[in-house]
Write a structure and sequence with these properties.
With 133 residues, this protein is mainly α. The protein is built from 4 helices and no strands. It has helices at 23-47, 50-62, 64-80, 89-106.
Length: 133
């Protein structure tokens, strides 16, 4: 038989009762991550109105990082008891816009063009080179 490394073995190809050496660690990590995701989804479905939850899921399709950041904010607020009630779609829109303003101050998406200055250029911005003719 060839020298197979444990990483080369697909756990689904093993007979029943056998497992790959690192399969239990991976399964435990996957189960823990899945449980955390289910808990987050449960909290979001409790604190968001159906319209707000639908909007957040649509946003997640387009801008996953932004939606995850808002989800983390909502979940942390819910866990600390800072939410007075359910979040409506309008309140979610406010949160998203606030995130846009904060993100815009951190990252500017504008381009600034600076013209190179040469030795022959004068310091005057309105120099239209009329003196050359």
């Amino acid at each position: 038989m060839d020298n197979l490394q444990p990483a080369d073995i697909d756990p689904s190809e093993l007979p029943e009762g056998f497992s790959a050496p690192n399969a239990s660690k991976n399964n435990a990590a996957q189960q823990q991550a899945q449980a955390a995701e289910e808990q987050r989804d449960a909290i979001l479905s409790q604190v968001l109105s159906p319209e707000a939850l639908a909007r957040l899921r649509r946003i997640k399709l387009v801008k996953q990082a932004k939606a995850e950041q808002v989800e983390k904010t909502i979940v942390s607020m819910a866990m600390s008891g800072k939410l007075p009630g359910t979040i409506s779609e309008d309140k979610l829109i406010e949160m998203l816009e606030r995130g846009n303003r904060q993100g815009a101050s951190k990252e500017t998406n504008s381009i600034s063009i600076q013209r190179k200055q040469y030795a022959m250029d004068s310091d005057d911005e309105n120099d239209n080179d009329d003196d050359l003719y």
